[in-house]
Automatic annotation (TrEMBL):
Any Pfam family: DegT_DnrJ_EryC1
The species this protein was found in: Shewanella sairae
Protein family per UniProt: Belongs to the DegT/DnrJ/EryC1 family.
Signal peptide stretch: none
InterPro entries xrefs: DegT/StrS_aminotransferase (IPR000653), PseC (IPR020026), PyrdxlP-dep_Trfase (IPR015424), PyrdxlP-dep_Trfase_major (IPR015421), PyrdxlP-dep_Trfase_small (IPR015422)
Gene3D superfamilies, alphabetized: Aspartate Aminotransferase, domain 1, Type I PLP-dependent aspartate aminotransferase-like (Major domain)
Protein name, entry field: UDP-4-amino-4, 6-dideoxy-N-acetyl-beta-L-altrosami ne transaminase
Alphabetic keyword roster: Pyridoxal phosphate
The keyword Transcription is annotated on this UniProt entry: no
Top-level taxonomic group: Bacteria
SUPFAM superfamilies registered for this protein in UniProt: PLP-dependent transferases
Length: 381
């Protein structure tokens, strides 16, 4: 089977993890801060907090921005459910902004219309969560401008997008956002098995997220002195969680960081190759914005006839090509339907979902395998 996505693990990765196993610390040792420093250095952001998943990162990002009961959060309907669930964990209300049919990302025009409407009704969101689908950056300048105009905070869900660039700067530098989150799940660009990170340029948000990932506990020197206590002393100020990353995960992440650029480079080469091979087929490609370089987490095409997607999908799978579909619109999930969302509410997202197909793309694929995928697709279509 040609997998749609797969991790790339080499001897350096294995040695790094094994070395941690015989070291003094399995958690809260030197690897986590070293991995965080590598992420900060790569993106140019001030603060990075490594956590046990991108879902956890989204949760503490929302909490740090003060999202709670009575607040609203908006995201894209074409995303993994975690982008929306994070708001619900905080007791907030979730809503969606329809996508741009060309990029599959949150549409800035739709966002502007929805914000103007919400402002009239005094129902503005506290936070919006644009998602860089496939690793293609959203139009962050437009989204950031609208957010500052209405006094709204922005969390970039860059789960797909580490290693990508927007306006010649690395995704994750938070130029147009308050917080940016990454995922290190094995199908993503680099992996720590499970893992994620939250990045920010705000020292207050970084401190809040650092507390929230570890039970809401702080151990500041000043407090120790004030309380005239010993080194055992700590204080819990918030209701936090245990969202910490282990040393094993961080060691793997740190080792993977040394190959981040080569992974993204290889993914771009393969995407270019796909684009050339696919010109002979009647497909529409989901393409990055001109002012960006995608990390190409996913290669998504739109099929000419939605009613043939099921057949094409099944026949490709029978030919040992693990095609996929990203994503079922979140508002169509039974849980979200129970919250009151209905079919037809986000028509661009629903149309997009009906004819998309994800083709295999990961650094381990050969050009020969790519040619096989395209040959199969041509036959099947
Ligand atoms: C993978 C993914 C997540 C969740 O990542 P985890 O690290 O598995 O928690 C969130 N949002 C998007 C868009 C994703 O693709």
């Amino acid at each position: 089977m040609i997998l749609y996505g797969q991790q790339s693990i080499n001897q350096q990765d294995i040695d790094s993890v094994v070395a941690v196993l015989t070291s003094d610390y399995l958690t809260q040792g030197p690897q986590v801060p070293a991995f965080e420093a590598a992420l900060s250095a790569f993106t140019g952001v001030q603060y990075t907090l490594a956590v046990n998943s991108a879902t956890s990162a989204l949760h503490i990002a929302c909490l740090a921005l003060g999202v709670g009961v009575g607040d609203r959060v908006w995201t894209s309907p074409i995303t993994f459910v975690a982008s929306a669930n994070a708001a619900l964990y905080c007791g907030a209300e979730i809503d969606f902004v329809d996508i741009d049919a060309i990029t599959g990302n949150m549409c800035p025009t739709q966002l502007a219309i929805k914000l103007a409407e919400a402002a009239k009704q005094d129902k503005l969101p506290k936070v919006i969560i644009p998602v860089h689908l496939c690793g293609h950056s959203c139009d962050m300048q437009a989204i950031g401008k609208l957010a500052s105009q209405y006094g709204i905070k922005v969390i970039e869900d860059a789960s797909h997008a580490i290693g990508g660039y927007y306006q010649s700067e690395p995704v994750g530098n938070c130029r147009y956002s308050d917080i940016c989150i990454f995922s290190f799940h094995p199908v993503k660009i680099i992996t720590t098995a499970e893992g994620g990170a939250a990045l920010t340029n705000s020292s207050e948000l970084a401190a809040a997220m650092a507390r929230l990932r570890s039970h809401g506990i702080t151990k500041l020197e000043a407090e120790l002195q004030r309380q005239d206590q010993g080194d055992w002393y700590y204080e819990q100020h918030d209701l936090g969680y245990n969202y910490r990353m282990t040393e094993l995960q961080a060691a793997l992440g740190l080792s993977q960081m040394t190959r981040l650029q080569s992974f993204v480079c290889r993914r771009n080469e393969l995407a270019t190759h796909y684009t050339q091979l696919l010109t002979r087929l009647p497909l529409t490609l989901i393409q990055p914005l001109a002012e960006s370089i995608s990390s190409y987490h996913l290669f998504v095409v739109r099929l000419p006839k939605a009613e043939q997607r099921r057949r094409i999908f099944d026949e490709m799978r029978a030919l040992n090509v693990q095609v996929h579909v990203h994503y079922i619109p979140v508002h169509l999930q039974p849980y979200y339907q129970n919250l009151g969302f209905t079919r037809g509410q986000f028509p661009q997202a629903e149309t997009f979902y009906n004819d998309i197909l994800t083709l295999p793309l990961h650094p381990g694929l050969s050009q020969k395998e790519l040619a096989y995928v395209v040959d199969c697709l041509e036959k099947v279509i």
